[in-house]
Amino acid sequence: MTIKSQKNLRDAIIFDMDGTLWDAVATYTLAWNEYFKKQGMDTVLSKADLDALMGLEEAQFLEKVLPEMTSESRKSCYQEVIELQYDLIDEIGGRIYPGVKEYLEKLSNYYKLFIVSNCPKDTIKHFMKFAQIEHLITDSLAHGQNYKAKHENISSLVHSYHLKNPVYVGDTHGDMLQSRIASVPFVFMSYGFGACDDFDRSFASFEAFALYYLNA
Q1: Band of the pLDDT at 1, cuts 50, 70, 90?
Q2: Exposed / middle / buried, residue 6 (Cβ in 10 Å: 0-12, 13-18, 19+)
Q3: How far apart are CA 33 and CA 78, in angstroms?
Q4: Domain 3-23+95-214: what homologous superfamily?
Q5: What are 46-69's pLDDT values in tens digits?
């Protein structure tokens, strides 16, 4: 057993995606506006509009974006938007935060790494492919796969992989609440989309976070 493993009892890090590992909201916004244009609609969203909605579950998100539609119409519309988003992620991706690719590689030598996000079914897969980090992530769960709350998906991974002492890393107050429900310590990334004053640890950059856990 190495000195590091004697000191550090944590065995896994579960990451949120948007606002924690990257910012692809400009790409998501482009997909929405392409859809509205194709439908002959006058609606135009800004990145700031979607920034404020990051982290919401699908039903809550769609209620904000498409308030005039029925729930069924929203879902039908969203499926078309999602396909546009996948294509655009593959084509132009998003802004991966500084240090993410470099330090995930190093962290994977000491921890099992996971991603849990409230995104559509395959967005995590497209993100990982764009970022070229598929080989570093043990598993992931998206809200669009099972429509379960984030705390349920965090708990699912904890139980499936028999994790003893994981942390959840996110960027919003909602991430904190879901982490608390799952009884998993919460690490807040203050550079993301939200604000939070209840956390176990907080970091202003991915590098600072990674260096802490690499030297814990």
Answers
A1: very low
A2: exposed
A3: 12
A4: HAD superfamily/HAD-like (3.40.50.1000)
A5: 999 999 999 999 999 999 999 999
